[in-house]
Amino acid sequence: MPTKRTKKGKKGNKYKANSTVDPTLMKLGSLDELLKARRTVLDPPWEGSNLIPGDVLWSDPSLEMGLSSNKERGIGLLWGPDITQQFLYTNNLKLIIRSHEGPDARDKRHDLLGMDNGYTIDHHVECGKLITLFSAPDYPQFQASEDRYNNCGAYIVLNPPDFSTPVFHSFEAVKPRPAANPYYDFEDVIDSDEELNLGAMDSGSASS
């Protein structure tokens, strides 16, 4: 869901991810703005025209109304049911299906349902629904068994004619897990929200 935030400065409008943003400067963006946004940028992008992809990647739903800073992640926003309703109504939509919030992230958010079944319906508003989908069962795969969540993954089937009634399918991981080699060094590369250190990234980019 695209959003817009600006902070006035001498060199134009900018946003710093680890600062507190005045909620009055936040407003819901548009699909046209998302279409124009740069997508071949380093992750996480948090300034200028790169702000929208960062918001789309890192923002999360909330049960509180309006827009607010996503303090847990240190980047992106939290948006409430009223924002979901506005986005669906403005764009003549009935569903928002989003991801990028697994059982590790939901384990720390007691206001929302957990990701044990691979999906949650986070907002049910007049115009439709907001759904979070997570398709990786027994997450995270390459960690020790006691560190995994033993969760189900899920996928959604949308059927004609209007494709607005999702059919959910949850599935478990095959056990015992078959031998597999990761395609990256998971011990040194961040693979969870807890390991994301935006402050260090910001300092590194400033010194380069």
UniProtKB/TrEMBL annotation:
The keyword Manganese applies. One of its GO terms (molecular function) is metal ion binding. Its cofactor is Mn(2+). Keywords: Manganese, Metal-binding. InterPro entries: Metallo-depent_PP-like, PPP_phosphatase. It comes from the Eukaryota. This is Uncharacterized protein. It comes from Oryza brachyantha.
